[in-house]
Structures are given as C-alpha cells and as structure tokens.
C-alpha cells in the first residue's frame, strides 16, 4: 500500500494533494474504514485542529488539543488506539456507527506536528499494532521524508 501511495505522489509537493490521496487510497483499500482523514494543526490558532481532506460522512470541523481521541493524539504526539470509543472519556462522536478508532500524529521533516490522521471503524477493536506500524510508516514516508 505504501509503495502505491508513494508512486502516485511522486513529484507532488502540495500538502493538500498528498493528504487527499492518502485518505482516498486508504479508505478505498479497507472496507471497515468508516471515516478516514486528517485534522491539520491550525497555524492561526493556539493548539487547535481543523478538519482536512477526508473520506466519510461529515466530521466536526475543529478539535482543541487534548479534546477527544484526535486532540489526545495531538497533545501527546502518541498514536491512540481505542477499542471501544464509547468507553473513551471525551470521545467526539461524528458518526453513530463508529465503534473503534486509531489516530496517528503526523510530523513534517523538521519534526513539527502538522496534523493527525484519524480512522474510525464500524467494527469494535478494529485496530492493532499491525495497523499502527503500517499507518505510522506510510505517514512518516509521505510527510516526513
Ligand atoms: N472521534 C474523533 C473526532 C473526529 S471524528 O471521528 C471524524 C475524536 O474523538 O477525536
């Protein structure tokens, strides 16, 4: 998957084009990905995420650092895997079918946090260390190299 994304994006520097392509290709590859996309760090706000390219139903537009699963990933800069979103304090429900979630911080080549990548699944406990490693590698290769 990573190689296919890299070959589509070869020579394309635009950040929106890169994010949109990653979201579209991953969402098309996995049936259990219900919402797949990016929340970018808003450069005009202090510690706030704003929705970026995604595939899925309408998501909320803004999430403060520390809020929900995305804001927790942004503040901690650690990938979050949530097996049961209903048990996560402060989870922000965008699609009532969502049952589990993974959020991976996205950093640029200078190590700055630029976004988080969020996937919601309609299956419980859909994400494990294999998903974490695969997504972390794709995001690193696409945005930090
Ligand atoms: N569930 C996320 C919010 C974003 S939507 O799921 C698209 C959260 O708790 O951060």
List keywords for this structure.
145 residues; alpha+beta; Beta-Lactamase; 6-stranded antiparallel sheet; 6 strands; 28% strand; binds methionine sulfoxide
What does this structure look like?
It contains four helices and six strands, in the order ααβββαβββα. The chain has helices at 2-9, 15-29, 68-76, 129-143; strands at residues 33-41, 48-55, 62-64, 80-82, 100-107, 113-121. Helix 1 packs parallel to helix 4 (129-143). The chain is globular, with a radius of gyration of 14 Å. The two termini are 17 Å apart. The structure holds methionine sulfoxide. Residues 35, 59-60, 63, 68-70, 91-92, 94, 98, 101, 118, 120 line the site of methionine sulfoxide (SME).
SSE topology sketch:
Layout: H1 2-9, H2 15-29, E1 33-41, E2 48-55, E3 62-64, H3 68-76, E4 80-82, E5 100-107, E6 113-121, H4 129-143
Antiparallel strand pairs: 1-2, 1-6, 2-3, 4-5, 5-6
Helix pairs in contact: 1-4
The chain binds methionine sulfoxide.
Each distinct ligand: methionine sulfoxide
Any low-confidence stretches, pLDDT <50, length ≥5?
Answer: none
> Reading side by side through the largest sheet, how are the strands ordered?
3-2-1-6-5-4
Report the top-level CATH class. Answer: Alpha Beta
Global geometry: globular
Domain count: the total is 1
According to DSSP, the number of beta strands is 6
Beta-strand share of residues: 25-35%
Helix count, per DSSP?
4
CATH level-two architecture: 2-Layer Sandwich
What integer value in Å does the Rg equal? Answer: 14 Å
How confident is the prediction overall: mean pLDDT? 96
Helix content, binned percent: 25-40%
CATH fold naming: Beta-Lactamase
Structural class: alpha+beta
Give, in order, the helices and strands: HHEEEHEEEH
């Amino acid at each position: 998957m990573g190689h296919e994304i890299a070959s589509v994006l070869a020579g394309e520097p635009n950040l929106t084009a890169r994010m949109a392509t990653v979201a579209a290709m991953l969402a098309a590859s996995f049936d259990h990905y219900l919402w797949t996309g990016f929340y970018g760090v808003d450069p005009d706000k202090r510690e706030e995420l704003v929705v970026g390219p995604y595939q899925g139903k309408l998501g909320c537009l803004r999430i403060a650092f520390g809020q929900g699963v995305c804001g927790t990933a942004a503040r901690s800069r650690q990938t979050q895997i949530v097996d049961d979103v209903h048990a996560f304090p402060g989870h922000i429900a965008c699609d009532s079918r969502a049952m589990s979630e993974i959020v991976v911080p996205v950093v640029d080549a200078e190590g700055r946090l630029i976004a988080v990548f969020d996937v919601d699944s309609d299956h419980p406990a859909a994400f494990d260390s294999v998903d974490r490693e695969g997504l972390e590698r794709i995001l690193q290769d696409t945005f930090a190299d």
